[in-house]
Every structure is written in structure tokens, then in C-alpha cells.
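On clarity, I found the account of how folds are encoded harder to follow than it need be. For illustration, here is how one protein appears when written out as sequence plus C-alpha cells:

:::
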Amino acid sequence: MIRMAHTGDHRMAPFKAAFPAIVLGALAIAVSVSCETPPKDCRAIHRGHFEDRIDPQHPTFITRTDSDQTEEMPSMGLKSRYRISWKNDCTYQLFDKRVLQGTPFRAWNPADTLTVVIEARDAKGFSYTANANWINYPIKGYQLIR
């Protein structure tokens, strides 16, 4: 008869068997908490004051209400207002642009529309992808909450 050597307390066997799953579960939670996740509720950023630095030399200061979005680019002396329409909690469209001050670098066509999808939120702001009906590529950016 062959006897096995005693390798430890038999009461620890269930814990030892479950240890890899516990470690992997904790690791998965840590990774998911540290990564940006798609927002579940974007209503907190439907209104307020924001700063967009898509062009760091020319930051844009944004004021958003239920019906309008005003954008000011002080470095260019430009101020514009758009009408806004929320398509769902995290997607909105800007249209009917009105230049209030300065000369824009591109003439606005009355049919132009910019669709913005909020991709992720954090404590400082949100990242977005915008698609314009006058260009063939998405615009990625981040707006700080002011």
C-alpha cells in the first residue's frame, strides 16, 4: 500500500481550489473599474458649461441648455450658437448654426448637422465621437466640465 504525504490542512482544500477563480475575479473587477466605460446616464451633461480642447491652441468654451449650445473661441474672436436636439440620452445633434461674433473658418450650410455621441464619462468630463454631414471621417474629442 502506497501512502500519500500529508500536504496541509484538509479544511483549506476548498479555498485552494477556488483561489485561481477568486484572483481572476478580483483582477477583472480592478480592470473594469480603472477603464472608461460607456455612460449609462448622460443627463447630467445635457446642460452646463464645458471646455473642448480638440485644438489646444484654440480652446472652445461651451454653454449648453435644453435647446441651444453656444460656443466661444476667444483666441479667434468667434462666438456661435447652435440649436440642439437630443436623439437619446447620450446622443445629440447640433444644427441651425448662427454666428454671433467673428468670422468662421468655414461657411455654414443651412442643412449642416453635427451628430455627437458621448462615448465615456469620468469625473472631469466626457469623451465623444462627432460625425458631420460635410466630412467623411469622425471627430474624436473630450469636453471638460467647468
About this structure: Helices lie at 13-34. DSSP finds one helix and eight strands in the chain. The first strand starts at residue 48 and ends at 52.
